[in-house]
């Protein structure tokens, strides 16, 4: 028992009193670390101890005590009373070695040791040889401080890339020698810079400084334009378009496009060179080209090194004339105070009269200015068009003309129509109703119209069970109506006039409550209007 107590406790006799002190233990010792030049690290040294005793931490580096009180540039003690962590800022190669943390109390002295390995990044990255698609690089591995490098990673970037990208890996074989590697698969006539990153079993280190920015040699362009198409333009024109080639794929100076075309059925290609590197369109003009003639078209690329790849063949049609004929049989009729319908006969077109893609309708009033003329279009073989949003009781003129990619043709002779008078402005009034079983009877006064309004032709009764349900419509020429509806719910009803000018104003919404004992069958009810 005495041996156990002696092992766990220290005895103190002070002023005739016997005290037992808790043993000091290093709970978080420093551990071996593998770092790269320029990093900042923390070596831990933390203890548990008797609170009544003071603790002193002393750090040594390679056998020499580190004097933290002199404000050493790279070393700093951090932590509280029971924490003696050592921070090393901006670590250098000279800081590689053994670090000893000594913990000292009035009764005990403990220590823990750890190795810190500082590795330098690869150095002196140089480009030794350049071709159109390769770079040959050399570099020195940099100090490894007995932490052998296992692999090198070569990274590159260009003005067109986002960040650095790994392009090659080189295993470490000749430790301490100058290394050489060839990076392949690069694009011609593009500026590259390189850097090297070393790695071992612990991880990867800091990258080397980038090499100088160098451009690969030029070569014949190999990427052909895509999306070759065209068409449109004026008569006697062949319009050819394509997607331009980005700078990083042009492979050299003097870049341009070779546009080749021939009429379908011909064996001879016409070639035109377009020297502007950002071009994506070429227009060929020749009076002998007939409208809408089909051509085989392809586009190639070239630079100072020679002619490159060519796109696949596309069919492109030459420009066309505007339609030469005006539509016949144009007519117009009024549907309401704000809507008319214009109709016409379709044009049977051919190569001589011009293709028709659709029709354009113009409409105006007697007092219209040019800016007030309305225009609307329909595509295809449509021969009618409703025009809305017009003024009531107004004379409108309308004309129709055909259009295609070249423009519009001649207009048909104008026709005119007068829109209907405005619909009645007064709603039905004095509406009375009564319930009898499932029958709802309605009565109201006839609506009288003003001189500038359309005559009342009838009435619409709109009814629904609630505001969210579907609205039903009953039309009548009288001033009374009967509805057969099951009154299991409240009903909402409104009545509006019907005229040539359109629907008139609606009455106020009437709520018809569901059948109950408080409603006597056959009794007439009228809202307090």
TrEMBL record:
Q: Which GO terms describe its cellular component?
A: axon; plasma membrane
Q: Which part of the chain is the Fibronectin type-III domain?
A: 121-219, 224-321, 326-422, 423-518
SMART domains reported in the protein's UniProt record: FN3, IG, IGc2
Q: Which InterPro entries match?
A: FN3_dom, FN3_sf, Ig-like_dom, Ig-like_dom_sf, Ig-like_fold, Ig_sub, Ig_sub2
Is Signal one of the keywords UniProt gives this record?
yes
Point to the regions of Polar residues compositional bias. Answer: 407-423
Q: What is this protein called?
A: Contactin-6
Organism encoding this protein: Sciurus carolinensis (Eastern gray squirrel)
């Amino acid at each position: 028992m005495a041996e156990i107590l002696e092992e766990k406790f220290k005895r103190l006799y002070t002023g005739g009193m016997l005290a037992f002190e808790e043993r000091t233990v290093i709970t978080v010792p420093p551990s071996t670390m593998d770092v790269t030049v320029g990093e900042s690290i923390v070596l831990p040294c933390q203890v548990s101890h008797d609170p009544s005793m003071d603790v002193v931490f002393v750090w040594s580096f390679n056998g020499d005590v580190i004097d933290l009180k002199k404000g050493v540039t790279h070393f700093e003690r951090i932590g509280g009373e029971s924490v003696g962590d050592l921070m090393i800022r901006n670590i250098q190669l000279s800081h590689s070695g053994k670090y000893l943390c000594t913990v000292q109390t009035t009764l005990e002295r403990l220590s823990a040791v750890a190795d810190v390995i500082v590795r330098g990044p690869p150095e002196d990255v140089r480009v030794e040889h350049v071709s159109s698609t390769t770079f040959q690089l050399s570099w020195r591995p940099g100090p490894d401080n007995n932490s052998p490098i296992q692999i090198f990673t070569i990274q590159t970037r260009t003005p067109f890339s986002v960040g650095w990208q790994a392009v090659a890996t080189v295993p470490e074989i000749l430790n301490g020698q100058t290394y050489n590697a060839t990076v392949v698969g690069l694009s011609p006539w593009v500026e590259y810079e390189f850097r090297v990153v070393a790695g071992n079993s612990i991880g990867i280190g800091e990258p080397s400084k980038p090499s100088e920015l160098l451009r690969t040699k030029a070569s014949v362009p190999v990427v052909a334009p895509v999306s070759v198409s065209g068409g449109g333009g004026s008569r006697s024109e062949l319009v050819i378009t394509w997607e331009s080639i980005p700078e990083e794929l042009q492979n050299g100076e003097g870049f341009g496009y070779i546009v080749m075309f021939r009429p379908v059925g011909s064996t001879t290609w016409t070639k035109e060179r377009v020297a502007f590197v950002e071009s994506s369109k070429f227009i060929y003009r020749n009076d002998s080209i007939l409208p809408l003639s089909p051509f085989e078209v392809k586009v190639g690329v070239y630079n100072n090194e020679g002619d490159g790849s060519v796109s696949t063949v596309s069919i492109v049609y030459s420009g066309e004339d505007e339609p030469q004929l005006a539509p016949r049989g144009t007519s117009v009729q009024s549907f309401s105070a704000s809507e008319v319908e214009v109709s016409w006969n379709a044009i049977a077109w051919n190569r001589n009269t011009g293709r028709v893609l659709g029709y354009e309708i113009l409409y105006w009033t007697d007092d219209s200015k040019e800016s007030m003329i309305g225009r609307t279009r329909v595509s295809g073989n449509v021969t009618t068009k409703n025009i809305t949003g017009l003024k009531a009781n107004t004379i409108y003129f309308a004309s129709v003309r055909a259009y295609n990619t070249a423009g519009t043709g001649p207009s048909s002779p104008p026709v005119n129509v007068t829109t209907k008078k405005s619909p009645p402005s007064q709603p039905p009034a004095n509406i009375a109703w009564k319930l009898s079983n499932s029958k709802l009877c309605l009565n109201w006064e006839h609506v009288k119209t003003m001189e500038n309004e359309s005559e009342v032709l009838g009435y619409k009764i709109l009814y629904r069970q609630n505001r969210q349900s579907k609205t039903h419509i009953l039309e009548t020429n009288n001033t009374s109506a009967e509805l057969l509806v099951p009154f299991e719910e409240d009903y909402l009803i409104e009545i509006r006039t019907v005229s040539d000018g359109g629907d008139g104003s609606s009455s106020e919404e009437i709520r018809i409550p569901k059948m109950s004992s408080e409603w006597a069958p056959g009794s007439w009810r009228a809202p307090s209007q």
